[in-house]
Amino acid sequence: MSNTKYQTMGQQFGRRSWAEPWKIKMVEPIRMISHEERQKAAAEAGYNTFLMRSEDVYIDLLTDSGTSAMSDRQWAGIMMGDEAYAGSRNFYHLEEAIQKYYGYKYIIPTHQGRGAEHLISQAVIQKGDYIPGNMYFTTTRLHQELAGGIFVDVIIDEAHDPIHQHPFKGNIDLDKMQALVNKVGADKIPYVSLAGTVNMAGGQPVSMANVKELREFCDRHGIRIYLDATRMYENSFFIQEREEGYADKSIAEILFEFCSYTDGAWMSAKKDNLVNIGGWLAVNQADVAEKARNMVVVYEGLHTYGGMAGRDMEALAIGIAEGVDDDHVASRVRQVRYLGKLLMDWGIPIVEPVGGHAIFLDAKRFYEHLPQDLFPSQTLAAELYIDSGVRSMERGIVSAGRDPKTGDHRHPALELTRLTIPRRVYTQAHMDVVAESIKAIYDVREQTKGLKMVFEPEYLRFFQARFEKV
User: Does the annotation mark 462 as catalytic?
Assistant: First the structure.
């Protein structure tokens, strides 16, 4: 079909379609078990979607971490793994890719992002330090606390409002930063913990203007900035789309500039970098790099593999280049928006604007009759699975955990259920099934009762807690 014909058809139907920038070469069969089997599976898992068997799940939106589909080039790279214990050539390919696209000097590979969070926290935090950040992330905050730090939320107030239309709800509030400096002193703040497309806020981005202003602020006070770069490709897309002066710049150019305003980053490569396992820490300070390299040998592996096989480092190096491609990132965000529009058209409450990696159902508005102590977002995840076999996850009071001083539940302003879209895995038809299932349980929402927690582990309880129906 000629381009002229295509345009004519687009005008005729009043829209222009888009398609994924890839074609399917291999498939993995999935199946939906019966309603009765799903009820049994949910009960046996304690209504915690993390405790369910993968084979009992139909459409898996638990996470986009390590669940993306690798390309033919990445699988070819797997066969080029140099499994030498020291000095694998795949490490040097990885190092080169990170330096090229992110711009940092010193690279330390880790088995996944959590390992990098541990290294940076132990390397630079002293007991009693304060770590400001644009909303907490579960594992990040825990590693900061285990190192003796105290997390302080300095995200803008709009981030806590699920329907506010601010285009960059991930921004840091510099007035809150100044108030913290005035209260504790800059010498008690080793770094700002800055996250791109803030997960717990609904995948909300940080503007380039904000990180520039933050850089100036931190330079005045002698504070470093370390970036959670896990989903910075999506953050770069939103800058390209929404921020003046960036529409004609590529995702790669925007990413590189954003990182240039920071002192280092940690990465869960299982997201943006399109691999099933892996992570890295990258910094510009030789002393921090030296300490991290010394620690990685103790906790992860030698500093040239950090808990990864050579083949995984090769797939990661290739994934970095593939993931930053403009067409890939645009397609990824459009699929998330497709699901979001279906839900908004039906009046189903979600976090707005739609973020880059997931749809976040607003469980407080979804189940207005359920108090937060009956775990509405956990309840919503369980009901969705029982209805259709779609696995999602809780991002509310369970994820927030308990206050270490009082032992009471933390009650976050946002009580969300996350539907996380893996990259290059599902079609729009799968999104239709998900949306229709959510609509079905929304229509009978007033009949739904909450859950009570019957088992609670010491750390990161959302992974292993168990519940019973009220």
Answer: yes
- Which class is 72-323 in CATH? alpha beta
468 φ/ψ angles, rounded to the nearest 5 degrees:
-130, 155
Residue 391 known to be catalytic: no
Mean pLDDT of 238-256: 98
Catalytically annotated residue among 270, 311, 332, 395 = 395
Q: Is the dihedral of CA 125, 128, 132, 136 positive or negative?
A: positive
pLDDT in tens, 304-361: 999 999 999 999 999 999 999 999 999 999 999 999 999 999 999 999 999 999 999 9
Active-site hit among 6, 8, 16, 85: 85
364-410: pLDDT as tens digits:
999 999 999 999 999 999 999 999 999 999 999 999 999 988 999 99
Annotated catalytic residue: which of 56, 60, 173, 228? 228
How far is the CA of 48 from the CAs of 382, 454, 456, in angstroms? Answer: 7, 11, 12
Q: What is the pLDDT of residues 289-298, one digit of tens each?
A: 999 999 999 9
For the chain, which residues make up each domain, given as ranges?
12-64+326-469, 72-323
Catalytic (active site) residue 85: yes
pLDDT at residue 404 in the model: 87
In degrees, rounded to 5, the angle at the alpha carbon of residue 247 between the alpha carbons of residues 245 and 253 is 85
Output the CA–CA distances (angstroms, integers) from residue 119 to 109, 202, 279, 309, in the order listed: 11, 26, 12, 19
Given CATH 3.90.1150.10, say whether it is the number of domain 12-64+326-469.
Answer: yes
Catalytic residue among 47, 101, 136, 137: 137
Closest-CA residue to 235 (of 283, 201, 264): 201
Q: Which of 110, 138, 140, 304 is catalytic?
A: 138
Identify the pLDDT of residue 12. 52
Q: Active site includes 395? A: yes
Instruction: Clarify whether 455 is annotated catalytic.
Output: no
